[in-house]
Amino acid sequence: MSAVKMEKLLLILQQLYHKTEYVDKSPQMIDYATDKYPTAAMTDKILNREVLDVLFSNAILHWVDNHQAFLQGANCVLRPGGRLIISCGGEGNAADILQVFAELVVREPLDRALGGFLLSTVGFGSFKIVHLRIHHRYVGTPLDFATAQRGQSIYAFWWKNLISNVSEAIRCEREELARRGQAFWHSELLLWYLLSLLWLAIDMVLGGWKGGVFWGIQALIAILTLDWTNYLQHYGLTRKQDARGRYEPVQVHHAWSSGIFLRDLALFNLMRHGDHHANPQRHYQSLRHDDNVPEYPYNYSIMYLLALVPPLFQRIVHPYLDRFESQQQQPQEG
User: Fold this and answer.
1) Is 100 helix (H, G, I), strand (E, B) or coil?
2) Phi, psi (rounded to 5 degrees) for 148
3) Dihedral angle at the C-alpha atoms of 152, 153, 154, 158, nearest 10 degrees?
4) pLDDT (tens digit, 9 = 90+) per residue, 21-54?
5) Beta strands, E only, the chain
6) pTM of this prediction?
7) From CA 275, how far away is CA 287, in angstroms rounded?
8) What angle do the packed helices 300-307 and 310-329 form, to 10 degrees?
């Protein structure tokens, strides 16, 4: 794309969107662009806390070796319904990019719809919304209520999550509907809760009031168990923040993980949670274990029980947490 056409495009983007940000790894290019467009925001990387409507890449991706990693990162910063626009010159050099992107786009909607459907059976459709829009984006930061803070008990965590899962899902949906200019009945949260009411109604038709009580109890147990697991998977782990307030990218060591074969087989690689966050598009059967992850001293079945006694849990876990954080602060070799 010529410089003249590029300047025209930038002007159009500034007119369409109330906030635009331009990213370049070259300090010289940032200085040049800042002088030429003093009102535009220039940076060397996309903010981890940004939620973008459009991500435009011009003549960049054919120089990138790992297209999968780029597309996963783009997915993390784009809001649901956001657009990724790629411009690549040259015959055939975008073929592999488009192939990877097509695979991601095709498989995600079905996977996510099935996830929402299953969560509706326990009245937890809100989890689908906050898990994608909040937890994966802000994990390891105070902005994520599903990351257990150091010293936070499981009981305080449960209470906070029971409230925040619903309130934050409503807030996310309200913002999304306002952005799209749609009425409340377009909300996917409404769909999941209507499905939950359907499951409750079926139970009550089949089992009367006892069937309704049974459905409510099994739903509560499922919700508490899922949050219990979240508590253990991220307890006390945080992402570093630079002088500008930007959080480091999510990495495998931002979750307590484990790579024992039999446990992975029984729990569908659930304990390889760090890789799930570092590579959210990777299917569960392909999740990998990395040696550079924090690991609990006992298996999860024991850690679940220890979490119910906060003083004992913290007495056992905090030394491991301190040791791991100390290792992370040491300069890496090579």
Assistant:
1) helix
2) -70, 125
3) -70
4) 667 666 776 677 666 665 555 454 554 445 677 7
5) 21-23, 41-43, 52-58, 78-87
6) 0.68
7) 6
8) 120
